């Protein structure tokens, strides 16, 4: 009897298993060179299936030495063109042709291969991949009741994160480091267990990286060249909660069941976001809502009634298209991070699906900030109407998000009314932030002074000063300084030569600026500034005749601006929240406050942006000087 196995059954290890069961004992096993070539290519790429197949060939060689079978290698190695079309079935066709030529039984565990071979008149033996009950993995033995994650690495002592949510300790859990052979054995056991058990599957398989879901564990296995050594990280949820366990539970439950909503669950890594998302998923599922999840990797612990989806053909956008056909009431989108994720989240929400996204954020407002620029500003409340911030396993803050047409807080002129996103504390009903467009820029303004501390400028004050300076700078050539006296009054100090230009004929120019900004502006010279020469907010104490070069003697940090389609972005390391001056070739351009992201954005099309772009084109050195 002659048997020709294909690649699938060699990788599964079922050839030797079938021989040991007595079915093909004494047969001649003819292994195609095409199978060897495929296994060799996979092993060279660091893919475990290649190594599994090569191990099976060694077992067949051992069986041949024992006289249980005859073993031969037949056929030619596939050429480059055939290997390039392997995914289209070229290699499979070569193997089938060889079985037909030899008049052999074709052995496969691939149902498609089996059907094609039978259609071509071959004698086919189809064996299903073996599924067996897998016991406890070695890596599981490193866990106790308080362990969230285990970290194993060749040459290092095993470590684990243990404790309660918000109070995790990263500590050693063994006395000796693991050698490479031992951790490699652990890794192979994990992959084999995922393949052989109904409780596991391989979530991601790339050269150098595998992510396995096995029972309650998500296990990542890194190998060279992706990592510089073999590394295993196993994570397991240590708590399963109900929504009733959280503060404001009754109000949250009522809000979620009232209608489909857009919710962002935010918090720092390890704060308990996913645990809360699981509690929400179980709650809404138990209240007659159809719930699905979108995850990569799939690691939320939810009941069997909730189907967990991952990327379809490598794209969450395609997953969203499929989900819209399934018509869920709510979808849990775990790990919304990239722009594509936010766009998919928004598209599904606007299609009427209730969406609950899990995002990383260090402050409650940061979750909404991540939508700015990714979703049209006016659509944000339609996409997200609730933000839940988790800290140390507890609900720290809940925000209600809605739009009102009003005059932004801190401004007074009625003609400045505009759509304003109000971010309101769900518990107190008091607004904490307003988000709106101010002079072509999107600004997020805190409505309390807690963030700035006593004596600090409010967000509105900082923005108002920047915009006044921007407007005055567009017509003044020299140094400009702004002193905001109140929410609707300011004094602007300019060079003597710039007074007439700023005021304009009959006061027309300054009146236009006042009308645009809704602030009364008194224009004076630097000599009238009580702080002039004192080094605090004035021109640096160097006199008034420097022609705009008053700050050039101060030390500055050389920066390289980036020009995008809408902004000029100036990176400023380590100065977030500070007020700085931007200079070009030693000449003052403007003053700005560095964002939390460590940068300054200037909207293109403004006078300041035009000056800055001209300086960049002239290759003038751009420097940032502390104000």
Keywords:
Beta-Lactamase; alpha/beta; elongated; 627 residues; KH_sf_prok-type; Rossmann fold; 5 domains; ten-stranded mixed beta sheet; PIN_dom
Query: Percentage of helical residues?
Result: 25-40%
| Architecture (CATH level 2) name of the largest domain | 3-Layer(aba) Sandwich
Number of strands: 32
Main β-sheet, spatial strand arrangement? 15-14-16-17-13-18-19-20-21-22
Point out poorly predicted stretches: 451-456, 534-554
Strand percentage lies at: 25-35%
What's the N-to-C terminus distance?
89 Å
Biggest sheet character: 10 strands, mixed
Description:
- With 627 residues, the chain is of the alpha/beta class.
- The chain is built from 18 helices and 32 strands.
- Helix 3 crosses helix 4 and helix 11 packs parallel to helix 12.
- The radius of gyration is 33 Å and the shape is elongated.
- InterPro entries: AAA+_ATPase, KH_sf_prok-type, Nucleic_acid_metab_PIN/TRAM, P-loop_NTPase, PIN-like_dom_sf, PIN_dom, T2SS/T4SS_dom.
Task: Summarize this structure briefly.
This protein has 627 residues and is an alpha/beta fold.
Layout of helices and strands:
Blueprint (H helix, E strand, L loop, with lengths): L1 E4 L1 H6 L1 H7 L7 E5 H12 L3 H18 L4 E5 L5 H5 L5 H13 L2 E4 L2 H9 L4 E3 L20 E7 L5 E6 L2 E6 L7 H17 L3 E7 L2 E6 L2 E6 L8 E5 L13 H10 L3 E6 L5 H13 L5 E4 L12 E3 L6 H11 L3 E4 L5 H12 L3 E7 L3 H6 L10 H4 L2 E6 L2 E13 L11 E8 L5 E8 L2 E6 L12 H15 L7 E6 L2 E6 L4 H5 L4 H10 L2 E6 L31 E3 L2 E2 L3 E5 L7 E6 L2 E7 L5 E5 L3 H11 L4 E5 L1
Parallel strand pairs: 1-2, 1-4, 2-3, 4-5, 13-17, 13-18, 14-15, 14-16, 16-17, 24-25
Antiparallel strand pairs: 6-7, 6-12, 7-8, 9-10, 10-11, 11-12, 18-19, 19-20, 20-21, 21-22, 23-24, 26-32, 27-28, 28-31, 29-30, 29-32
Helix pairs in contact: 3-4, 11-12
């Amino acid at each position: 009897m002659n048997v020709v196995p294909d690649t699938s059954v060699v990788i599964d290890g079922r050839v030797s298993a079938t021989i040991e069961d007595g079915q093909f004992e004494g047969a001649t096993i003819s292994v195609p060179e095409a199978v060897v070539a495929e296994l060799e290519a996979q092993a060279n790429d660091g893919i475990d299936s290649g190594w599994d197949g090569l191990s099976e060939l060694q077992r067949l060689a051992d069986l041949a030495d024992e006289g249980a079978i005859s073993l031969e290698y037949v056929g030619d190695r596939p050429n480059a063109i055939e290997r390039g079309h392997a995914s289209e079935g070229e290699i499979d066709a070569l193997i089938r042709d060889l079985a037909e030529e030899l008049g052999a039984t074709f052995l496969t565990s691939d149902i498609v291969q089996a059907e094609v071979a039978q259609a071509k008149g071959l004698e086919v033996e189809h064996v299903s991949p073996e599924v067996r009950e897998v016991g406890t993995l070695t890596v599981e033995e490193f866990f106790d009741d308080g362990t969230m994650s285990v970290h194993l690495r060749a040459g290092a002592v095993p470590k684990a994160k243990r404790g309660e949510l918000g109070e995790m300790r990263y500590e050693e859990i063994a006395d000796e480091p693991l050698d490479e052979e031992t951790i490699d054995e652990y890794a192979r056991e994990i992959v084999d267990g995922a393949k052989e058990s109904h409780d596991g599957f391989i979530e991601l398989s790339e050269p150098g990286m595998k992510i396995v879901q096995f029972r309650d564990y998500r296990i990542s296995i890194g190998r060279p060249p992706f990592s510089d050594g073999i590394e295993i990280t196993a994570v397991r949820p240590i708590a399963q909660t109900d929504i009733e366990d959280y503060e404001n539970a009754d109000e949250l439950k009522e809000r979620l069941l009232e209608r489909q909503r857009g919710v962002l669950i935010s918090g720092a890594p390890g704060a308990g976001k996913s645990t809360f998302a699981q509690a929400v998923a179980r709650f809404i599922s138990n209240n007659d809502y159809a719930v699905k999840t979108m995850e990569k990797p799939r690691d939320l612990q939810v009941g069997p009634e909730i189907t967990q989806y991952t990327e379809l053909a490598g794209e969450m956008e395609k997953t969203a298209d499929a989900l819209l056909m399934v018509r869920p009431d709510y979808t849990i989108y775990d790990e919304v991070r990239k722009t594509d994720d936010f766009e998919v989240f928004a598209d599904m929400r606007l299609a009427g699906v209730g969406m609950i996204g899990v995002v990383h954020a260090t402050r409650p407002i940061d979750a909404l900030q991540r939508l700015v620029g990714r979703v049209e500003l006016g659509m944000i409340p339609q996409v997200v109407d609730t933000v839940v911030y988790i800290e140390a396993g507890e609900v720290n803050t809940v925000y209600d998000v809605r739009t009102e047409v009003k005059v932004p807080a801190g401004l007074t002129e009625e003609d400045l009314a505009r759509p304003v996103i109000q971010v309101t504390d769900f518990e107190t009903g008091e607004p904490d932030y307003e988000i709106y467009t101010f002079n072509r820029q999107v600004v997020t303004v805190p409505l309390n002074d807690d963030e700035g501390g006593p004596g600090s400028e409010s967000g509105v004050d900082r923005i108002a000063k920047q915009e006044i300076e921007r407007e005055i700078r567009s017509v003044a050539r020299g140094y400009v300084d702004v002193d905001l006296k109140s929410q609707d009054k300011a004094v602007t100090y300019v060079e003597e030569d710039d007074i007439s230009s700023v005021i304009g004929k009959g006061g027309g120019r300054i009146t236009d600026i006042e009308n645009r900004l809704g602030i009364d502006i008194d224009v004076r010279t630097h000599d009238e500034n009580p702080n002039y020469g004192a080094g605090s907010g004035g021109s640096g104490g160097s006199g008034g005749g420097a022609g705009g070069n008053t700050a050039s003697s101060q030390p500055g940090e050389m920066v390289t601006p980036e020009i995008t389609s809408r902004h000029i972005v100036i990176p400023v390391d380590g100065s977030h929240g500070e007020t700085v001056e931007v200079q070009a070739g030693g000449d003052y351009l403007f003053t700005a406050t560095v964002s939390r992201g460590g940068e300054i954005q200037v909207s293109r099309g403004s006078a300041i942006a035009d000056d800055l772009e001209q300086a960049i084109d002239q290759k003038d050195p751009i420097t940032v000087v502390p104000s």
